[in-house]
Amino acid sequence: MFNELVPAPSAGAVFVFTRSSGIWNLQTSLNASNAEEGDNFGVSVAISGDTLVVGASGEDSNASGGEDDNSARNVGAAYVFTRSGGIWGQQAYLKESTTRIEHVNVVGYGFGTNVAISGDTLVVGDPVDATAYIYTRVGEVWTQRTQLKASNAEQWDDFGFSVAISGDNLVVGAPEEDSSATGGEADNSAPGAGAVYTWQ
Q1: How far apart are CA 127 and CA 134, in angstroms?
Q2: What is the mean pLDDT of the chain?
Q3: What predicted TM-score, i.e. pTM, was given to this entire model?
Q4: Euclidean distance between CA atoms 151 and 122, whole angstroms
């Protein structure tokens, strides 16, 4: 049965389609377990096999207070769903490991702005904190393993605005990074030129 109603304005939803004989059909729609207005659930999505990760960059819960604690506005969250027998169920609700200061003036631009997954490793980007968070899964449990920053991190670079992962290769975008292509990381003579950082 589909979840046909979005619980609140801008709470968000994700629609899953499957292909058979070249035809795409709606399999289901997904909502967050703690869906609320303005969460932006679905602002980013990524899939690997039977695992789907969804970003909700406007979600309000405090990292230490659980899903129903809305004391940290717009900090964001990520949700992991898995499919078994054609049925999708929520496997995990992910937040940063430490309590965050709310993003009062940055609506829908926090943790979960972009997500990526490859097998049992997923990445969640947070351009406000200029961080990419890495999680790994053992069994059905996801654990934050590390967090990455740019080697030349500066305010407003938007590091973490985009993320991608394939096996042991990780890429993080910073579209507002200012370095000149010829001047090196410390040369800020090209405002907003952008940069991409890679890890292996």
Answers
A1: 14
A2: 84
A3: 0.85
A4: 21
Q: Which two tokens stand for residue 172?
A: 């993080």
**Secondary structure (DSSP) of the chain:** ----S-SSTT-B-EEEEEEETTEEEEEEEE--TT--TT--EEEEEEEETTEEEEEETT----TTT-TT---STT-BEEEEEEEETTEEEEEEEE--SS-----TT-TT-SBTSEEEEETTEEEEEETTTTEEEEEEEETTEEEEEEEE--TT--TT--TTSEEEEETTEEEEEETT----TTT-TT---STT--EEEEE-
Q: Is the pLDDT of residue 4 over 50?
A: no
Q: Which two tokens stand for residue 139?
A: 């069994």
Query: Which amino acid is present at 135?
Result: Y
User: What burial class does residue 110 get, using C-beta atoms within 10 Å of its C-beta: 0-12 exposed, 13-18 middle, 19+ buried?
Assistant: buried
Q: How far apart are CA 78 and CA 98, in angstroms?
A: 15
Q: Lowest mean pLDDT: which of 82-86, 133-137, 184-188?
A: 184-188
